[in-house]
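Structure in, sequence out. Go:
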């Protein structure tokens, strides 16, 4: 949440290396059911949505391309893990996952970040699961 208030982030939509690294780690960790469940139960997606939303004042209204791709990847990956986990304790219905995404604000920011053709394909595959 601290980064969402950083004037440099708001102005450029870019993060320096020490702040990009946690996004890469989160993206990797979210493919594990326990970490994914913790992300849904904590404020992770709310914090991620707040971070992306902070760039709305910019001319192009989006964070840098690599950040947008990371956001899309994290949402798609966590949706897949949450709805298809082999462990029933960590498996949620698609409807519940979308409600969590919507209430956290990440769904709106995810849609804003769909900038590349492959991102749109991931989104279409995600919607087919509903």
């Amino acid at each position: 949440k601290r980064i969402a208030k950083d004037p440099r982030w708001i102005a450029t939509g870019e993060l320096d290396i020490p702040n990009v690294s946690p996004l890469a780690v989160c993206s990797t960790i979210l493919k594990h059911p326990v970490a994914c469940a913790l992300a849904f139960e904590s404020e992770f997606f709310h914090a991620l949505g707040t971070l992306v939303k902070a760039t709305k004042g910019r001319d192009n209204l989006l964070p840098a391309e690599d950040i947008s791709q990371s956001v899309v990847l994290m949402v798609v990956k966590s949706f897949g893990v949450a709805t298809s986990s082999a462990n029933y304790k960590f498996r949620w219905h698609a409807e519940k996952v979308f409600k969590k995404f919507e209430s956290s604000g990440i769904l709106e920011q995810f849609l804003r970040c769909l900038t590349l053709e492959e991102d749109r394909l991931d989104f279409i595959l995600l919607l087919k699961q509903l």
